[in-house]
Write a structure and sequence with these properties.
Keywords: Membrane, Transmembrane, Transmembrane helix. There is one protein chain. The protein is of the alpha+beta class and 273 residues long. The chain has a domain of 146 residues. The protein is built from six helices and eight strands. Strand 4 and strand 5 form a beta hairpin. The radius of gyration is 58 Å and the shape is globular.
Length: 273
């Protein structure tokens, strides 16, 4: 019979020892207390933690964004994009305000705006007569003159004759008609000689438009019986004559009034060019 080694003896187990007993109620219970649980007691032997990663498909970021999250939080709208709609909106608002202002001004007023008459630059306010809204211009002055003035213009031809008629009112309400004639001579020396001749008595002058029947005024066929004045401006000789159909009974008073009108009318030559 073979010999086998002796069988080891059965180990004797130590009696179980109870280290501690649990109380009837734990110091922290999720049902009875709202205090946070006590910190976990870590044993001397640490276990190797196993991290399980569950892949979650994240939404693909939109252009102009970085990582997850709303694009307006990550990348707020730029200032240039805000300007694109802020500026047009401001323009529309300004246009609406202007349109409302114009509508308010014109609402309920169908009449055209009043025409303000030109202010007088002198003592009287003159207005151009309708027949001479456009001044009458001629190149031959001798054909429109009489007396010694005509002879002078034949010997010394002018360059141009410009004439027009004006009306004004004097203090007593009478209407005064005034002739303004501009004789343009070749030079200043000839113009001064013509002015001296016109200023002398009984030497004649240039015809006014009433005398040539270019215009008609009841009670007047010429203006040479009223007031007269003349001046030289470079090579231009300005001749003015004024009269009214309703004369003052005193001839001296009448001529003095017409003289003041004719002197003031010299400035009208600037309007005729």
């Amino acid at each position: 019979m073979p010999k086998f080694p002796p069988r080891p003896a059965e180990p004797v187990s130590a009696p179980a020892m109870i280290v501690s007993t649990l109380p009837e109620e734990l110091p922290w219970s999720p049902r009875t207390s709202t205090q946070p649980p006590p910190p976990a007691i870590t044993s001397a032997v640490t276990r190797e933690a196993t991290t399980v990663t569950i892949p979650v498909a994240a939404p693909s970021p939109q252009p102009g964004t970085v990582g997850p999250g709303p694009s307006w939080l990550i990348n707020p709208p730029s200032t240039s994009r805000r300007r694109k709609w802020v500026l047009p909106a401001a323009g529309v608002l300004v246009a609406a305000l202007l349109a409302g202002f114009v509508l308010w001004l014109t609402a309920g007023n169908d009449d055209p705006p009043p025409v303000t008459p030109p202010q007088a630059g002198g003592q009287y306010l003159f207005q151009r007569m309708g027949e001479t809204v456009e001044p009458v211009r001629d190149s031959d002055c001798s054909e429109h003159a009489y007396g010694k003035v005509k002879q002078f213009l034949v010997a010394n031809p002018c360059r141009q004759l410009t004439r027009a008629l004006f009306i004004t009112a004097i203090d007593n309400g009478r209407t005064v008609y005034t002739s303004v004639s501009i004789v343009r001579m070749p030079d200043r020396s000839t113009a001064e000689k013509l002015e001296l001749l016109v200023r002398q008595d009984d030497t004649g002058s240039v015809n006014d438009l009433l005398r040539e029947k270019r215009a008609v005024v009841p009670g007047l066929d010429r203006l040479s019986r009223g007031g007269f004045s003349a001046m030289t401006s470079d090579r231009d000789v300005v001749i003015t004559e004024a009269d009214t159909a309703d004369r003052d009974p005193d001839l001296a008073v009448h001529r003095a009034e017409m003289k003041r009108v004719s002197v003031d009318a010299l400035r009208l030559a600037k309007e005729l060019g």
